[in-house]
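Structure (tokenized):
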């Protein structure tokens, strides 16, 4: 397949003190429920696309969620210099997905227009809606906009041959997933349309949600976007690292191939 890409997950942080009530609305169980934090790399020959930018040590300290390795260093350790990346897809502007927008000086950033409007609009007056965002990250995206480095999408749309963004909403107003054509069929990076396999398979809402109906609709849509159910990749599930082979990285930042 001429348009076939390879898909990699790079883990850069983890939170092992969470419980199930942190992951599933209406679940009152206090059983441990850890979370992994990833960025994703798409590669086709010499071409590379980064999906999300993670967050840095300062953000981790501010939120008491320390990182294991800087996401940009994870990429560099896997042979990808951040300054060589010309395309970055930002699934949404929450702190853990858009906290490294300054690490890619030569990139254009693909974002849903609805997400920018949401993150800079009156909804941010409400602390509960504002909490997952960091103002400096949103301001950085505005700076990129004014330097001509933001590509807005209004719904599903193509990024490069074999890569398209899929508007899903739910968790954030302009959340988008990424559908990637690989040699084994389409892989659907769900990002936070489904934090865990259990979210989309069981129809269980994640507690941070701006549109519950859109989140449920996303759960139902995800399997049709992947070539097989196993190729729906949730945004934060530690099971990803058990189900897909590690192909490099370090103990602090393991890299797993998803296609």
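Design, position by position:
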């Amino acid at each position: 397949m001429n348009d076939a890409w390879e898909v990699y997950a790079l883990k850069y942080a983890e939170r092992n003190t969470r419980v199930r009530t942190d992951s599933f609305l209406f679940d009152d169980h206090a059983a441990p429920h850890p979370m992994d934090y990833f960025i994703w790399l798409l590669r086709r020959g010499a071409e590379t696309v980064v999906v999300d930018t993670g967050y840095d040590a300062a953000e981790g300290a501010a939120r008491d969620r320390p990182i294991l390795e800087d996401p940009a260093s994870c990429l560099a350790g896997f042979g990808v210099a951040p300054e060589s990346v010309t395309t970055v897809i930002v699934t949404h502007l929450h702190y853990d997905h858009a906290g490294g927008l300054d690490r890619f000086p030569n990139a254009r950033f693909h974002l849903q227009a609805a997400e920018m409007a949401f993150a800079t609009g009156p909804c941010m007056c409400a602390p509960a809606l504002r909490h997952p965002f960091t103002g400096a990250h949103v301001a950085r995206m505005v700076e990129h906009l004014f330097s001509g480095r933001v590509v807005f999408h209004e719904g599903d749309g193509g990024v490069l041959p074999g890569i398209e963004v899929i508007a899903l909403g739910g968790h954030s107003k302009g959340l988008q997933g990424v559908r990637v054509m690989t040699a084994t069929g389409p892989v659907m990076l769900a990002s936070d349309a489904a934090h865990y396999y259990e979210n989309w398979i069981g129809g269980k809402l994640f507690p941070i949600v701006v549109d519950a109906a859109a989140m449920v609709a996303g759960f139902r849509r995800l399997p049709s976007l992947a070539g097989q159910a196993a190729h729906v990749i949730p945004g934060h599930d530690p099971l990803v690292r058990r189900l897909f082979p590690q192909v490099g990285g370090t103990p602090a930042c393991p890299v797993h191939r998803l296609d």
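Reviewer-requested clarification: Residues 212-225 form the longest helix (14 residues). The chain has a mean pLDDT of 97.
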